[in-house]
Design goal:
homotetramer; four-stranded antiparallel sheet; alpha/beta; about 35% helix; eight-stranded parallel beta barrel
Chain lengths: ~350, ~350, ~350, ~350
């Protein structure tokens, strides 16, 4: 950390800062500049508490971190890519994984039919929500019954199951059926939930909140990793913008190479969510692959359900469209030396 | 809702849309324009499901809602201000309520001392977090022990207690001690939690997520109201911006008059959070009152804790500063015909 | 346009709105809903003035446009892609055009050397700024001398020249040397300048401002088109975000398919600017092509100048890197059925 | 500046950075940390060019500025408030200045009538645009004829004139009539224009672009100051947001105290623009004063023109409303120890 003193900070103030740094068992180097004095903290000062102590001391203008606050998630500490084994596939490897399925599991017939179609098309995993996935108060999810259908779909097709868990106490139940536990964007900083999945033996698909920074995303990952679960996939799913033509969302495409550089964890893109509307899903998916994503999440549902559940924000493709989408994406994947 | 057909939509497509509208027991009026045909839906079409069905039909370009999706929360349906009675005070009335207290309850001595100081200064309620309020993995909250301290502070001072609840199954326990249950910004769309507090008999302080629209905030309030709890305070607490000088946050001051116009619920501002850093808290608090807020949330802690817990994002004032702040705010309150 | 009346608007208010609509020689259709009355305006009501008149009338809650405010730029009015012929190449065709060159022209040697390298690599045009391109007050551009160097480079290589013009009265002078006149993002709504280039016979490269909506971009294009110049390329170059890891910018990738759908004009991406920093330029360029861009702008300079002119926001590649970049991009272009 | 080396940077790389720093006649201090080496540059390193040289050197991860890039505009270098004398009034003093007038000057009668009404109400200056102030291609300004009307209004009322200049070559002409030259938000980085007004003897009202950072605003001010014009007012006028209920704009209220801390220049707020729509103008104006603004810009026009020119983005008040607004604002001003 670098502590920048105010112009005109006194010698006593500088010394008080140094004394405080030493209390934390860290070392200090003072640089007297022409306009200001700057103090460099030497040692591992990641703890937010320590940073705070210094920033409110008399004579201190501001502090600037040198080290990222996360450590286990950081590529510097762990240079090699983390590969997550999922039913034989290695997530994070050169093969790009497509997680596909409906927003909501609504019936056994729906999910089994979709699972077979997606398996045939080449999806890597089946996703689907079973708990009230709707912001509006009209719909309710199938709950455990939906998890049973997903498990049956896995049994029939071999596709691993990805599903959201939104409450800490539901983690064990969901984990009995699912292969990957998904954290929704609006739960990215739900710490009791992160805690609970951090103690699970399942891989976690952690989605970035629509207004969260990449540092906050990696800190949420760190929070899970610190509890012992080393299998975390971080997922960019769109950030909110002022642009109404794109439904006020865009895929933060620059986040993909930056995340790949900052962390060793696999980096996914939820292109259905990030696309904002039906017109952009193909473009967003291709762009995500071109930019280096390790996997995509694509919402697929049956035509009848698409019509029934659609809104300006939902924009699933049907299984037939998915087959064509995948053909297009495979070509882009090959152009960036990946397979699919 | 208005359904806008594509240029060149066929007569059959228009008729299919009308037929679909009638299936929903709504009525349709067709307006044939020079360039496009537009269909107005007559009736209460708030349900997102219906809206979706139409927007994905052949020949439809887009749909535009005429009615807000929320109803119970809307001022149109309920023109009179909702007043929430809290230990004799009427939240939402001309008296502006100051909710004050530390981010985290850390000891009995701290909270009792603060409670007496805040009571003497004129705060309307005491707030404080008891569950791990930190994004970093170093600190843990006091849990139920902290709630006991808060309850003891209420007993000694008469100040009602406001505290966060972050997990549905903890609602009954927190409700045994607290007077107002607070929903954090990152939990604004945590539906199981909204469900749980919707069934509580306690008033709810619902904070807007940093990237949530006002419509989403009012829909989250609606979600609680629809479950029977009519006492919801909505709270603007800052939106994320690109501006590093203000810690990437600003108080969305325009949200205050707009919320007052759209809803009958009391509108608060978390000025400590929205201020972004210590330099702006007085300005943000004054501005919130000047713009019409019914109450403020201000973080107050003891000097020693401020030093220990401070970070670039935390910026509590100490009790002495709070007394001066309140004097300044009272003058602004009077200038807008409010008391404090 | 749809006029939404307030709940409880009187019959007289509705009639006054209708009368006003008829004054504008437009027609009105009234739809009496359960909660509100809605009035549909029939006819071409694109003029902002008319829209305003209605929105401030008594009893009116708000107005919602049905038609986009631009017309000449719109794909509905002009369904076929606009192709712009540039020294034999057709901009907007299946061949993706790479415009490459330095941010600033600083010497004859620099620009001639770069021009030959870029021509050999396969660039479609040479760009370079000659007027003070720096936000800081230390540097000045070469002015007309720089234009002469660019013209000489064209003579030697055949590459058409793209350069910025920032003042209306300089348009004739710049037009004597350049093939394409570029409007910088911060000048997108500089109307005297749009006016001036609208009367030019040269193709215009119009960059989107970092906070401008796509509607505003298309309206700026419309402004040029309306003055007679039909050769406008619209260019997405990144929008400002809250994300410091990406230098507070991301390529609005969703803008690409949306612009292609809304307008017949060629759609480019300034991937050097949108990348935000050096780590993302390859990803952003690939993503732009994958998403459907008709061309890219890539900053290329000599290593010595890169070192001298670099900042956190500038991130040119050198000619050698450009050759490799182009090889990578060509593969992605082919994967989306384009050439380069 | 602080140069942060990559983990594993070699000794030779560190030495090359130091050598480069010395070439710039600056000094270097090396701090060898546990994980990284950090180099502090000692001396005035504000020049962007130097910063760039270091950030692209081998082994360098990133550079962090310690000094703000502006100097003349900075309060550190110039601690006392700058007061700008305007027809006897001192802008930046305890008296809050209201600049009021129509968006567009459309007739002699309009501007004279408004000027008398505004003078009587207590406005400090009269504003009005004379050059095509419309984004759409339907309207044109009155040009010099409009300036004559404004000058006549000044003669009759004594109110100083504030008007926009958008082209460098028009500066002398506008300066013959106006007292304060206004730079529109979309021209904040129009350097030829900043250049031209920097050489003028008139005070400049510099509006922040809707997506510009405060550092960019202060750098634009610096640009003017560096050319010799010391009378610059900086003006916050709203930042674009994702919130449609507030017309995608909010007043960046936190910018006010931060600007007051960073610069000695007077800080204004364009509350008409920042309000986003008619419902918020009173709230935004009160909030701006409460937060510490030195002046406000409020759009006032005659009722007939408001109806004719109104749009969802324009929201002038009429003279009668202005009188009441001013009464309300005066009370808030007094509550923060200002007059009006």
């Amino acid at each position: 950390m670098i502590v920048i003193m105010k112009v005109g900070a006194t010698k006593a103030q500088v010394e008080a800062v140094i004394a405080n740094i030493k209390t934390m068992r860290l070392d200090a180097r003072v640089i007297v500049g022409e306009e200001r004095t700057v103090i460099a903290v030497v040692g591992d000062d990641r703890s937010a508490i320590d940073r705070g102590v210094l920033s409110v001391m008399d004579g201190v203008e501001r502090t600037m971190p040198v080290l990222a606050p996360y450590k286990i998630a950081s590529r510097e500490v762990h240079p090699a890519d983390t590969l997550i084994s999922l039913k034989g596939a290695a997530i994070g490897d050169t093969r790009i994984a497509l997680i596909a399925g409906p927003r909501a599991v609504i019936s056994r017939a729906q999910i089994l039919e979709l699972a077979h179609a997606l398996k045939a098309a080449g999806a890597a995993a089946l996703c689907g929500g079973v708990f009230d996935p709707q912001p509006y108060y009209t719909s309710q999810g199938l709950g455990e019954k939906g998890l049973e259908y997903l498990a049956e779909a896995r049994e029939q097709t071999g596709l691993p199951i990805v599903t959201e868990v939104a409450e800490p106490e539901l983690v064990p139940m969901v984990a009995r059926y699912a292969d990957v536990l998904q954290i929704a964007p609006h739960n990215m900083q739900n710490y009791p939930l992160l805690n609970a999945v951090g103690e699970s033996a399942h891989a976690i698909l952690l989605k970035r909140g629509m207004v969260n920074t990449l540092e906050e995303l990696l800190m949420a990952a760190e929070y899970i990793l610190a509890r012992g679960n080393q299998e975390v996939i971080v997922c960019e799913g769109g950030i909110r913008t002022y642009e109404s033509y794109t439904n006020n969302i865009t895929l933060d495409i620059n986040a993909v190479p930056v995340l790949k550089a900052k962390t060793h964890l696999p980096v996914f893109v939820d292109s259905s969510h990030a696309a904002g509307n039906g017109h952009s899903i193909l473009s967003a998916s291709k762009a995500a692959i071109a930019a280096g994503a390790d996997g995509l999440i694509i919402e697929v549902d049956q035509p009848a359900n698409i019509a029934r559940a659609a809104s300006n924000e939902a924009h699933p493709v049907n299984p037939e469209q998915f087959v064509r989408l995948l053909q297009d994406l495979r070509r882009v994947a090959e152009a960036v030396d990946r397979t699919m």
